[in-house]
Amino acid sequence: MGSQIRQIVSNLNLLKKKTHYSTPGEYKDIMDGLLYKKVLESDIGDSIKKREAFTFTINTDGISFSESSNLSLWPVYLVINEVDPAIRFCIENIIIAGILQKKLILFFKLI
Predict the structure, then answer these.
(1) What is the pTM assigned to this prediction?
(2) Which site among 55, 60, 65, 67 is 20 to 30 Å from 37 CA-CA?
(3) Using the 8-state DSSP alphabet, how is residue 100 labeled?
(4) Cα torsion 23, 25, 29, 32: sign
(5) Does residue 110 lie in a domain region?
């Protein structure tokens, strides 16, 4: 995971450029939100502004092997919020954090 992050940061030169410009009062991206702005005002905010730290969005979505299978896989992936929204979800900017395996257990009530 670390190598994926380093590659994205290096490829996009995130350490040297500002990646987001917003108009006050517009909410087009997570970086426009109040919670993100609170994080920037916190102790870690200085590190984010200096590009020494990044914030992530975590996503997952399960898939089963077949309709009759009781086994499903849940890939867990991250994106760096400071990457330009136009390319944030491009495959080369997605970080694979892991894959969860889940066995579905069905309970039937006997009548």
Answers:
(1) 0.72
(2) 60
(3) E
(4) positive
(5) no
Which long-range CB contacts under 8 A does 27-32 form with residues at least 24 apart?
28/85, 29/85, 30/57, 30/81, 31/81, 31/82
Q: Note whether residue 109 is domain-resident.
A: no
Could you read off the pLDDT tens digit of each residue along the chain, which spans 111 residues?
888 888 888 887 776 655 566 777 788 888 888 888 888 788 777 777 766 778 899 999 888 777 777 788 889 999 998 888 888 999 999 999 999 888 765 555 555
Classify residue 93: in a domain, yes or no: yes
Residue with tokens 């499903």: 72
Show the domain range for 78. 2-103
User: In the structure encoding, which two tokens stand for residue 50, read together?
Assistant: 């200096």
Which residues, including other chains, have CB under 8 Å from residue 13's CB and lie 6 or more apart?
Answer: none
In angstroms and rounded to an integer, the radius of gyration of the C-alpha atoms of the chain is 19
Strand, coil or helix: 37: helix
